[in-house]
Write a structure and sequence with these properties.
Blueprint (H helix, E strand, L loop, with lengths): L11 H14 L4 H8 L3 H9 L6 H11 L3 H5 L11 H12 L1
Helix pairs in contact: 1-3, 2-3
């Protein structure tokens, strides 16, 4: 199976950076956010640094905890002016079904 173009792939680092930015907007520490999620601070740190990836279910859980849409966490929100690539649209349809 051919690999998708690089502009379509969502990297762990990009998701981690968005997660960190959204957490800081809410003035939460990693410890506070990890407690809210029921996980360890080290796991959250690894996600924010791009060392560890997140599943679709984790994206939904993180977005709900931050009170944002999964679209915004994934960086494909219509508010940011970017057109979501077809692969991302398929992913978001799956997120909405959960």
């Amino acid at each position: 199976m051919p690999r998708p173009p690089k502009h379509v792939v969502l990297s762990r680092k990009e998701i981690g950076e968005r997660l960190r930015a959204l957490r800081l907007e809410r003035r939460m520490t990693q410890v506070e956010f990890a407690k809210m999620l029921g996980t360890h601070q080290a796991s959250l740190s690894q996600i924010e640094l791009g060392i560890r990836g997140v599943s679709l279910q984790q994206v939904v859980k993180l977005a709900r905890a931050l009170r944002v849409s999964p679209d915004r966490l994934l960086g494909i929100s219509k508010n940011n002016g970017h057109q979501a690539p077809a692969r991302n649209e398929r992913l978001m349809r799956r997120v909405r079904r959960i």
